[in-house]
Batch of 2 targets.
Target 1
Amino acid sequence: MKKEITIYDLAEKLNISATTVSRGLQNHPAININTKKKIFDLAKELGYQSNKFASSLRKQKTHTIGVIVPRLNSLFMSSVLSGIEKVVNNAGYNLIISQSFEQEEKEKTNAITMYNNRVDALIVSLSYDSADFTHFNNFINKGIPIVFFDRVTDSLPVTKVVIDNFKAGYDATMHLIEQNCKSIMHITGNLTRNVYKDRYEGYRKALADSYIPFSDDLFITNDLSEQEIYNAVTNNILKRKQLPDGLFATNDSAAAYALTLFKEAGLKVPEDIAIVGFNNDFISKVTEPAITTINYPGNEMGENVARILINHLDGEGDLSLTSTVILNSELIVRGSSLKSKV
Amino acid sequence: MKKEITIYDLAEKLNISATTVSRGLQNHPAININTKKKIFDLAKELGYQSNKFASSLRKQKTHTIGVIVPRLNSLFMSSVLSGIEKVVNNAGYNLIISQSFEQEEKEKTNAITMYNNRVDALIVSLSYDSADFTHFNNFINKGIPIVFFDRVTDSLPVTKVVIDNFKAGYDATMHLIEQNCKSIMHITGNLTRNVYKDRYEGYRKALADSYIPFSDDLFITNDLSEQEIYNAVTNNILKRKQLPDGLFATNDSAAAYALTLFKEAGLKVPEDIAIVGFNNDFISKVTEPAITTINYPGNEMGENVARILINHLDGEGDLSLTSTVILNSELIVRGSSLKSKV
DNA sequence: TTGTAAGCGTTATCAC
DNA sequence: GTGATAACGCTTACAA
């Protein structure tokens, strides 16, 4: 293992001081242009690499951004991450990523790790069951910016990037109503999470506006795993005497899986039951029929989150002024819900 | 912004030296148990956080592992990452993740960034077009372990974790032949990548073993994007006088999309054309018919990669002894290929 | 069992 | 325009 090259090595060879080398490397305006050139040339020649630890230690800044998400293995989340990574990387920051596996406990330890790693900023999408948010207080007290996206909370004074889930839920439900559905189910996640709660409320409002009474029987909430969707469809919905004629599922995987199970049971989609999903994952395009869904641009959301943060860290833009950013989302109508040709 | 607590603060309050505090915090065996307790108690009380930069600077070790993958936004990759994150995190390491966006150039800059970040180890799945691997020499020369997974190369002396793509390709093709397919297409990616090359060779071997001549017309290679698959199916395959009666696609998304396009064109699957995909993504379960595929456990692969690395870093296990790890994969037969009920 | 002192590589401050 | 020096917070010989 060969020894690392430091600014002292460069300084010695050039017969100047380490200070000057440091300044030169950072393009300090007061340094003579020729000196700079000499420094850069030698640095390149010797393969000099700046030591980030020394620099971070000295500057008390890490150029690292922490990300805590519920899970890495969903298409939506990957797209968001992809967007974040792109922007953040271009701005010269690094990303430390961890998953809470949908558990508050893991989220807490992850937050501590991030704090110990002295991240310059934190990006969070909350776990399924997080109800207590004290693990973020460290950051807030120390002035480390946090941005929440998708799964957010109002109980913390931080920037949020979301879509209008209420409107999306309303639109999805209204669309089913317009397709003449009278008995519309809604399958969704934990109602303490804003995304699910808002969609649910949109669903209820659309029913109310259409004078369709809400029924507890038509509303299912679970953890949205493959297993739970299977249970809900096979052991619950399909066992009923009176089947629903519409389903609004809170994500496309659930919608696609339900669609598959319905068809296996001999039901026709959309004739017997019309389906609307959420997210516009690729999966919604390859079922038969293709699934009507809400376009939810994960990549764009990730890029927005990252951009807001970078602007703040680099001193442009004020995070506190833009405390909630709402991105566009819209209904995409496909075969799974189109009973009537309008 | 309140000042950080350091070991000196603890030392002062306890009237001992910083050295003792440092040792105590690390459970050094020579430190008196009561002293230790006092140290830990005070550390907790004051909310002391070890400064990783100072520690890294001093120890020349970062407890950080770098990951470079082609893209983050695929289900397979997310599963791998999820597996890596889980193991690595449990072992107290951090993850820095970056994507090459399938470009050698970006992969090179990512590698440099990782190197500058002084990662303790590197995990890589190669980009679509990487042909030159000199950007990994820094790591190799310095003895920083690298593990490749999925998209690997033989030209570097590093550990590799893969599945037997040749066998998988052979099995997939053989299955189609057994279903009486006579004209079997193969759609895959860049043949310089081991995964695609090996599957391709498995495909050819299965044909050869069955005395079916290979035909260039039945072989398509492209970048596997949605657009390219659309082109291949719509502007090429469907325009032929003589349609193929079998398709082996190198991933499930491509298979699912092709299946959808075939059906739109009025073809029947599997009667007119039988399809086999690859990966066993969730998407393969919700098409109609469901897609026969090769089970490729991303999560397991990620966990294996991470475990090998951690063992090595922690001094157990010798990386050089286990230079290629081959994980199991097997054919999962579903409706998309089942012409005959055997 | 504990302490002293040096050093990891950088950058901020002050001086010239 | 450039340099000397101290400091960031930790670990580790070496000493006691």
Target 2
Amino acid sequence: MIGRCHDFRFCVFHGRHRGGGGFDEDEDAYLVPSDWEDDDDDEDWNAGGTSGRRARDLQKNLTASRGAKGAAASSSGKGKTASKQQQKQQQRAGAANTDDDDDDDEDGNDSMLMNLKDCRDMQLKPQHTDRPIWVLPDGHIYLEASSPYYHQAYDFLVAIAEPVSRPEFVHEYKLTPYSLYAAVAVSIDTDSIVKVLNRLSKTPVPDSVETFIRACTVSYGKAKLVLKHNKHYIESPFPEVLRELLKNPTVSQARLGEEEEEEVAPPPKTGGTNKTAAAGGAAASGAGSAATAAAAAAGGARGGGGGARGGAAGDGFTLTDAPQEMDVNLEYKELAREGDGDDADPDVMMGTQPGGALKNVAFRVKNSEVEHVKKAANDMEYPLMEEYDFRNDTLNPPLKIDLKANTRIRAYQEKSLSKMFGNGRARSGIIVLPCGAGKTLTGVTAASTIKKSCLVLCTSGVSVLQWKYQFQLWTDIAEKDISCFTSDIKEAINEEAGVLITTYSMISFAGQRSEIAKKIIDTITKREWGFMLLDEVHVVPARMFRKVLSVCNAHCKLGLTATLVREDDLISDLNFLIGPKLYEANWMDLTQSGYLANVQCVEAWCPMTAEFYSEYLKPGVTARQKQLLYIMNPNKFRTCEYLVRTHMERNDKVIIFGDNVFSLKKFATILQIPFIYGATPESERSRILGTFRVNPLVNCIGLSKVGDTSIDIPEANVIIQISSHFGSRRQEAQRLGRILRPKSNVDGGFNAFFYTLVSTDTSEMYYSSKRQQYLVDQGYTFKVVTDLANASDRSQSKLPDRKSELRVLQETLMAKTDQEEKDEKKMLDRDMDDIGEGSARGTVMRRKGNLGALSGADGSRYMEYDSRPPPKKHPLFKSRYVKM
DNA sequence: CATTGTGCAA
DNA sequence: CACCTTGCACAATG
């Protein structure tokens, strides 16, 4: 039996005993008062008439109904109910600068305003004041956070809808096909969704929404992607579904006969590398060869374009029956049983199926095409389920790993894992937890539940070490069973089963590999991984990093991240690359529970000084120079200075973040504080961090974007941002995450501070509001202060007068990029070579050149350069050069 | 083993 | 409405 401390796994087992239903996902979990009348007359929805394809059109209609922006927004001024006014106010409060500009409610933010128009004629139901949510015809849902039934409704809504924005009083959610897939994936059936939604809603659920829900959920779970002997199969008890999928060219082209080799065949190195031959090895190989034989026949048939195998696979399509031998796995029986018991759904797909005897049919797809197939299937609204029945997997050797007896996991971690293991199997997906909320422990717990070979992917070498450390901290895994693989650590993998921790770039690296690396990569790609853990999963959609998913084969994938956002549009790719978002913690809930520090966010407005602003406005000033000017704005510096001084007096630990290295250096130098950036060697870094941690006299350090990731400073409780990477919401959230570690002085008030210094009337204002969006959606509010620069006493400042300001301005205008400096150096070296003798490389010549360059005769310098063949074709340099 | 170069991500 | 620098990982070099 399981130790009573492992509540989570306790739950998993019980979940299974209860017949595969999610253990806290059934309708009963969303209890509402029984005297609420159920006014949903489950009208019979005719599945036959509506195929899943309709969902997309419905979605279009839904969005179209949102209508023209401006008119709706202005006409919505007198929303009918008090709570809608409240919503609006709240929404506006979320945006930092609402006073003068009404137009800056952008993107998703305006939906609430528009929707007010749409629901004028909605009828309120009895007990509507008790019911916590509004369901609008466009699929948006609003939840009153003050409702006594908030928690029930919250649990339900996060399961079926995407959180859009969760400020203090009213939360906005949105129904999307993906969110509904995820809901069905965690075992909430369609009728329950509609029923509970209706019960919670103040107004009857609009027909459009119900239709949308049904259309989205009807085809979910009909087809499945499974991994067998390192080959991928699309499998379904419904031949019709497979036929449908095969109509898609992407899918049909990805199809592969059982015995066919993929073109990208690995080097012929078959000599016993496949180590699946464990305890059940004999049985496995027997089944394997039988399967191959059976499929070979099928493949032949397909080649001939002729006879269908199996009665169900007619219609000109030749389906490869799943060989009987493959059905030995319980997984299949359970699938069949589920389909059998699926009472509420007399599915059109099953029309020809003999009720009790569901047999799975399957066809193989190329491993290299899995990504595209999944995307295509998603687009067709037959999202492929990926579930791993790890308890009944006898093919892959088990891994000896258990949580230590004293390991405890928190309620929300357990909850997130319950979404993953809800029906006793492991489903692929993404868990979103804020920084410092224990993502690693969540991942480790998942790995020790599955107990199969586990591949962990991280973004950097240091986090590889951290993961290994955490595995050893929380579990009893043997030293021989866990290994790291980075450019400088190459540990041997356990042949049987083990945990391997590596980086994305290690796997996706395209260039020449060292011999030892080649060997390890080979074993990684050959192995059938039980579990793949993707740390910082928001990086995975990147062109190179997503390759890891086609290179490594895993039964189940779990992505972890704190910030599921990107500034490009690739984030939604994760839906088919990994799976649905299984759980997203609410930052404010965790703050209230004391798991996170209570952060006061402040945006400090710093007016530009006259000289800096006139430079800023000059025509022909490059974007980079403009950026430098608003960062180096003396009022910003003095604001920073003032904040540092103030927090020093409180004995706080302050981090100054600067994305731009030049300005960071300048600030740090003038303030006389240590700073770390990319070029700071490791020894120096740990020395500075060490003193910052322990020395009460060193309470302030500067960090470049090295601090955004991979530097952990639990002691810090104040952040001052002096410069940032444009509108990166991820950076903003990640920086805030640095001070989220709960602080000891919890007295209900703010115990951490997050300042962003913004030069007014510059593009920095725009970026700043963009950056804050993610945090605003998590419920943070930004307080705007305007007078800090003047509040500071000039005489105490290191930049007290106009003369010193002008000096800074001068330096700012002369600031060179690293690239420019390198080029200068190169050019100098070249000049030296031209002059001839190496001995002339003396100080005199070098100095002269340097001074000349610094004096700013840029144009001529580059012109001269032009007459020579370009020494290097760095694209960045090229464009700059062309400009001049 | 410290540095350098390349390529990538954001 | 895009902005383009900075940091990192990896392998190869002297």
